[in-house]
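Appendix B, example 12.
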Amino acid sequence: MERSTTGPLPDAYPPAPGAPLPDGTAAVPAPGLAGLLDGMPRQRAATPEAAPAAHPGAPPHRSLPRPWHLLPTPAGTPFTFAYAVVLAVTSLIAAHADPGLVHTLHQDSSTDVAHLVRTPVLVLLASALWIAGGILSPYTVAFVLVLTALERRTGGARAACVFLAGHVLATLATEVPVGLAVLLGHLPDTSLHRLDYGISFGVATSTGALTGLLRPWLRWPLLALAAGGLLSDLLAYADPLTDWGHVIALTIGVAAWPLVRRWGGPA
């Protein structure tokens, strides 16, 4: 016996989308058929596989340290790189030129009181072209590492401003009292021609400024190491005027923390 149905027979084909159904509703295409061409079956695109989710307990991905970023490059740190080249040239001249010529160059570049009164801008710039003690001075290594790091965080122009500000302010802070002491008769006139040149004041200021951009676990040990070395030189009393200048320069750098932090932010 054949089975019978109680309703009307189904159509041979499914109703077209939007066509009225017997109950008064409109036919809606099945979600899986939406977008297919009528009468033209095609391959459905494969669903792209989702990237595997990171394990909840896995540590965040961190880039590997890049030691070469400690050294200046023409593209990354143009100010430090160009300045280092100039210092290398002047150091070679100081090492291999006639000693009399080298002494004359140093004397003409000295930021003593006599030169500061006559040609202040010239000698303040010229004195920063030499490394006291030569290329093997500890300030050479400090210059390369500190200025490179400072320029990478603040930019070349701002790093140059920090360096130059420390060089100029610390020089004036040590030479102006000498001039006043000579004027008042507390020092002989020969103190007006005291030989003074080099990059150490600028390096000390840049070191102090850089520590303000470092994380606390690195900031305070580095600052303590720098301050301890400068204070030990001061206590040795071998060159108290220059040693006081180094302490003043480091203090200038620390005082610049609010400014350099606005420029570069903590590292």
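The chain has a mean pLDDT of 84. The longest helix spans residues 156-183.
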